[in-house]
């Protein structure tokens, strides 16, 4: 699991002896802790802020709304209190998709702005959508993980021009593809004990097919306006199919 490129999802590199892979769970220490009481959590500022921002994302963000509707149509309805968890995380990780529990983890100590929450929720919902619609082998097949990371980086807004400028990264032709590739590799390396060469090979082998898989958006949404149009098209597509 894990969103290692600062915005991802949940095998092993040989260095003389084979190391056991924890699939990124080391980045999410609260996964193994006993849940805190409601009173303690309600008094915890980070937790409150996380819950408020999450609610705002789910209610107003067109990226998230489209993905929630698509998952519902696929038979995987998402419930706020069941499928999202605000927790403390290690390092600079922002979120992750825990395939073992079908739960999205949001790193309450690292997500401080609404725009960041929007991207993280969208990124992880793409992993959840892939988990719902396909038999993704998150833990044993690095190509499956690579494909979902490519899709998440491509469709979540991670690689918009403004986000890349904020990272002081500039490019001309093909820069979006470069960003998607780089962020997919970084996400894999954050949550898997594999070499950089292994991660790069997995991403490169599936890149074209997965980059061009635009479901459920039908396009690369480069802005909220694009996402709103994609959401409207998705709703109209469902209405059209219902009348066939």
Automatic annotation (TrEMBL):
InterPro entries: Peptidase_M76_ATP23. Keywords: Hydrolase, Metal-binding, Metalloprotease, Protease. One of its GO terms (biological process) is mitochondrial protein processing. The keyword DNA damage does not apply. One of its GO terms (cellular component) is mitochondrion. One of its GO terms (molecular function) is metalloendopeptidase activity. It is an enzyme of class 3 (hydrolase). Residues 1-20 are annotated as: Disordered. Its EC number is 3.4.24.-. PANTHER family: MITOCHONDRIAL INNER MEMBRANE PROTEASE, MITOCHONDRIAL INNER MEMBRANE PROTEASE ATP23 HOMOLOG. Belongs to the peptidase M76 family. This is Mitochondrial inner membrane protease ATP23. It comes from Sakesphorus luctuosus.
